[in-house]
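Pinned message: reference record for Metallophosphoesterase
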Amino acid sequence: MRVHVVSDVHGNSEDLEKAGDGADALICLGDLVLFLDYADHSRGIFPDLFGVENADRLVELRTARRFEEARVLGNRLWEGLDRNAAIEAAVRRQYAELFAAFPTPTYATYGNVDMPSLWPEYAQSGTTVLDGERVEIGGLVFGFVGGGLRTPMRTPYEIDDETYAAKIAALGEVDVLCTHIPPEVPDLCYDTVARRFERGSAALLEAIHTVRPKYSLFGHVHQPLARRMRIGATECVNVGHFASSGTPWTLEW
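Predicted structure (tokens):
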């Protein structure tokens, strides 16, 4: 059995169309939407609406962790515009292209920048969306939990720690834990380019210790200090920033 795993697609539909080649199934761990490309500030919903110069400034403020100033900039730019309608229209355009690129079968969960309320409209019959749920693939049990935890970035699908922990607990015994965010381990949460810690989950780390799955697969941190680490019986793997690599991570058994 061969499964390809991707995360942090961020608009890369071209490579997504080929991500399932040679595999029995594709797993996607979220962040389909591209709001702003931190490597190329001309790409994404934000520069399409407000231009590259404003995108440069927003990235500068966020990278410096000056989140309040970034919010002030954003609020000024959005004045007089229907923010929700503009973002939803742009996300719909991206989702139409990205969901059409998924092979059959695909098993997917949400990232923190996704809009779960729209997924039922775009997920085709070959795509199974899971969040706080399990599925058997080739004799192994895979558990999925999507989204991220609360941060000053205030991305669209952030949930509180208690709700996230309840979803992890609801999975029970699984062979493979599939999440968007990593367990709360410094080396797995630190982004070496952004030079900051992203939020990881303590509940996920606890489940790794108690459930002892074969694998914990995740994304979210684009340039992690450590891409993989063994915790007890579990191999923890950041499957990579698919938007930049265009290459899925492979799991075979």
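Pinned by admin. Summary line: The two ends are 5 Å apart (CA to CA).
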